[in-house]
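Our preliminary data section would be incomplete without showing what the modeling component actually yields. Below, a chain of 366 amino acids is followed by its predicted structure, encoded as tokens that our downstream tools consume directly.
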Amino acid sequence: MPGERPEGCCVNHTSRQGHPHSHLQTSAGTRSHTPGLHDDAGCSSQVYNPDNKTCCAGRLSNRVLGKNLCCGTTPYGVEDRGVLCCNQTLHRGVEAGHQCSPGGHLYLPSREIVCESRVHLNNLGKHCCGEETYDPQDEICCSGHKHRRLGNMSCCGGKAYNPSSGQMKCCADTLYNLQVQDRLSEDAQCCGNILMEAGSTCCSAPGLDLLYPTQLGFTCCGHRYPNSSLWSCCAGVLHPRTERNTTSMNMIPGLLRILPLGDLKTEKLCDNKVLLGTVESVSVKKKTRSIVMVNVMSMQASRGHVNALPSPHYLTLPDHCSSPELVPGNTYLWVKTRHFSDTINVISDLSDHPSPLHSILSRCSK
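Predicted structure:
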């Protein structure tokens, strides 16, 4: 109509939904515009008339009545028969019942199963393991690799092993054969993904484990291994020693170390009272450390005792400096001594266990 300002539309190329803009207004000022033509940057900045052209993902096609949807660079219509758009690829001649997998692969659910990028015949009871299928009754899937299930099998990275045999040790998804190394499983300990050898010391901080040759007079402070005559340590933080602070901070840095669950001796884990909970916050009160935890359970696994405690639950460690750094949001296991039920002598971080309670009970039920 006379006096109206011509408008165009910045279009979403898959839905063709957009918002109007003035043909005469740009971020740089004003410009002239040919009536009936629309400038759409999504079509490689080509000038086109949407009445007779369709733009799909930067490609112009002749407009066909009813084909107002885009699949990649191809226009199609919602009423087109035998077509299905999967991951911006238009499939034609598709039989009824076909679907797109989450990865964009065309398949027929009644006859097929999609494992990552591969389509397999859907044998009843089969599941995906990586790109292959497997039978969970006879096989175990470990990080995309299937193995024959023999007894009480568990995964260690992409490998399977029987933890109750005492012949293998899993260190952060790396599997070690203890028979080859002439080691006992109860004595073997991990430092990250490394199996520790005699004469070595593991120093740990959240997300970092470092192995050092054991030296007289050196002790852990978080992931560091300093000379304790030169450095004092408080909760994983180093402080140079002076005459004034030689007694003000812990003389035995890193006394309480966070251990992997697999390094805890079975009797200590299963026979003692333990707490399992998620750290919500940590604060320091004089020389003690105050910890607020949620979702806390108290248990003595060997007796089958598991109790949920009220949330929040408060825990106090008597010496802040000798305690390791704790990460709010992580789930920890706190092992209490047998005779002094309020004293914590072992902490284990179970945040990387999908089900910490199951991990504990499965260890204690062997």
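The chain is about 5% helix and 40% strand. The first helix runs from residue 266 to 271. Preliminary results of this kind motivate Aim 1 of the renewal.
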